[in-house]
Fold:
Amino acid sequence: MRSENNYQFFFDPHTHSKEYKPSDYLSDYKKLIIREREKGLQAIAITDHETITPQWERLQDWVNGIQSFPFQTIFVFPGLELPTYFQKTSKGFSLPDKPTSTSPDHEIRFHLGVIADKYEKIKQISNDLLPFSKPISLKATLGAIYTNNSIGIINHPRIPDDHDWKIRTSALLYIKDLDVQQAIRGIEVFSGRSKDAEEDIASISQTCQWSMIGGSDVHVGKKGWEKNIGKAATSILFSENEVITPNDILFQIHEDGKTEEKYCERRVSAKSVPSQKTNIIEQIFRPIFLQ
Ligand SMILES: [Zn+2]
Ligand SMILES: [Zn+2]
Structure:
């Protein structure tokens, strides 16, 4: 139950720079972080496509310089977005280490968001996976996420639309069964790039016990990018006296949330997540709050 002593924490776990040239990254990230903070987000993860955040130390120094605890604080987490695949066979699905089929029709692809509390972990995941040709084996990706104590989120699960939604749904259930180590903790139900509440995806998140995630998928510099910020975010309830133990994760979609109150009013869907699943956020935030 929510009480007066709880407060909400808004997290955008899915953001990108415009990926133009390396010299632009730092200024892209600064623009992004300023806009996210103005829109009331308290945490973001930078999840560029197959690229670890360049100049991470400089970025962190800059972020630390603009902090003012608690509500104007913004935590910036390192991440990646990886194109992963596994295979569809006549009997169902298979998860080979390496491609065994040459036909793209037999591949099922998902974009996986990967987030960690420490840059070194993301760097290691990148070293483990990115030397190989893309898309990357889902099996290898799950292994790297788990080994490096990070978390995976299935981003925009309808995209790429390589197969119809029915097949992609069974593919998601297949992933759930295989992911015994729980590398995947969430699935993006709300995206800043769409206005819809995704009932179908929400229902899979329930079945698979994956946390429902809202992310902006903003790309700095893309036309209208600033408007996407805050349209979807992941809301986490913290108890005032127990800051490091998030007791709930909620999901919401926002039209144009600017303040905390607006975010709350515009919530279209919220649910409690079983407590064993709340460690998605706990894992990320605990080390930071304990510092
Ligand atoms: Zn993507
Ligand atoms: Zn993305």
Remarks:
- Confidence is low (pLDDT under 50) at residues 242-291.
- The longest strand covers residues 75-88.
- The first helix runs from residue 25 to 38.
- The pocket of zinc ion (ligand 2) is lined by residues 14, 16, 81, 155, 217 (CB under 6 Å).
